[in-house]
Amino acid sequence: MTPTRLSAMVFDVDGTLLNSQGRMTQRTFNALRACHEEGLVLYVATARSKRLVLRDWEAPGDVRFLTNRGAFYNGAAALDLEHRFERHWMLSPSLVCALTDFVVDAAPGVDVALQHKELRHSFRLPQRDEHTEWGFGDEARLPFEIARQQECSKTVAWHGSRRLEALHAGVAERFGSRVNAFLTDSHLWLLMVAPEASKENAILELLRLRSLPPDEVVVFGEDTPDLGLFEAFPYSVAMGHGSQALKDAATFVTKSCDEDGVAYALEELLHVLK
Question: Do 2 and 8 meet the contact criterion of CB atoms below 8 Å apart?
């Protein structure tokens, strides 16, 4: 079952547009570029901030035709630069403080990051080299004790080797509907955003801006944070290596990200490209 009319497509980034080496292949780039040139509106829906979406070394060409609009911070921000549109759903200062207190008490060994739009960033534990890839220079990093008393786009907890199911359950029990929390990356990462923040809500907001109906949209994803998108839109494509829950909910299951699954879906499943 394919859309009678296709106007837009929405893509998760890591594990969907990017392969397991963190790179977009030339085939995927060419397919996306061809869709754009055909007049389709393309969006990203990602956990990343705008500044970190498809950095120069991750794609083989200029991808601003794709990254200038989308849902960022797992839906805590919706941006469409062509329409000069920007909306944020923030965690309040009191909730950020309560969340960080709970997380640190419940799992003392985890690291915690606080992200505030494209402006500021903070880490609970001492800076490590890999954190420089998060795209914030020293001038934009706040001390954790100061940052946790301010509103933020997303709170992230992670551990290099410990799965965080118990922490996720604790956050759900303690904060309920006040926080949208979900696990990703083999359950080593816990992402927490405002209850109104989700990829699907942000994308729906952006579609209304351009008067694009949801039944003319196809969404692509590979992990649990994409499940809401798959439930909100009638047409969806799950990556072949993705979670079973997502594949069960999908209209189509394509090949894995290491087999150019996005390009394959556009060519062979959706027949967007001839």
Answer: no
Q: How many other CB atoms are found less than 10 A from the CB of residue 33?
A: 16
Which CATH class, in words, describes the domain spanning 93-193? alpha beta
The contacts found for 127-134 with CB under 8 angstroms, 24 or more apart, are 133/52, 134/49, 134/52
From residue 176, how far is each of 152, 168, 242 by CA, in Å?
18, 11, 27
* Helices 165-175 + 93-106 axis angle, to 10: 140
**Residues 179-201: what's their mean pLDDT?**
92
User: Residue 120 has which token pair?
Assistant: 């500021």
DSSP state of 238: E
Distance between CA atoms of residues 155 and 194, nearest Å? 10
- The amino acid occupying position 269 is L
Distances (CA, A) of 242 to 90, 202, 211: 29, 22, 31
Average pLDDT over residues 91-115: 94
Q: Where in the chain is the domain with CATH 3.30.1240.10?
A: 93-193
Query: Considering the domain 8-88+197-269 in this protein, what is its CATH number?
Result: 3.40.50.1000
In this prediction, what percent of the chain has a pLDDT beyond 70? 95
Helical residues (DSSP H) of 79-125, grouped into ranges: 93-106
User: For residues 2 and 227, which has the higher predicted lDDT (pLDDT)?
Assistant: 227
- Range list for CATH 3.40.50.1000 in the chain: 8-88+197-269
